[in-house]
Amino acid sequence: MKRKVLLSIFIIIFILLSLVAILAKDLSKEEIVNELKKIVIIANKDIRLEKYDILAEKLGLKIAEDPIIKEYSGNGAQTMRPFTVKTAWEIQWDAKGDIFQIYLFDKDGNMLNVVANQQGSGEGSFYSPKKGTFYISTNAMGTWEIKIVVVE
Q1: E strand or H helix at 100
Q2: Of 49, 79, 104, 120, whose CB has the highest number of CB atoms within 10 Å?
């Protein structure tokens, strides 16, 4: 079943490649196929999508902007994977429990800010105009949901 799905995806992609080849002045059809073969085997869906976006950008295709950059939910302390932003953004949270904290780090691991530090349940947000790659870490006694969204 998995192979049939992958084969179908490859057929659709191959058809699209024929149309995209005109736009891809720097990449040959074979190079595009090779890039797709490398991407399709990536197990982590977030990383796989990032690689597709990079390839689409190389091909001169416009990438649709999703206002939600990342979504997380959990209980207690966690460190999330890095995210990259190219525009102003905001962290929005909804926490249930006794304590909720969010720490913001740059890609090198330097703590930039204590984004949230609340006692009790509640919602909140933190705005940042900074571009770059960041990650967040939580400390909580309770459950929480976090969204990182584009702000226009």
Answers
A1: strand 89-106
A2: 104
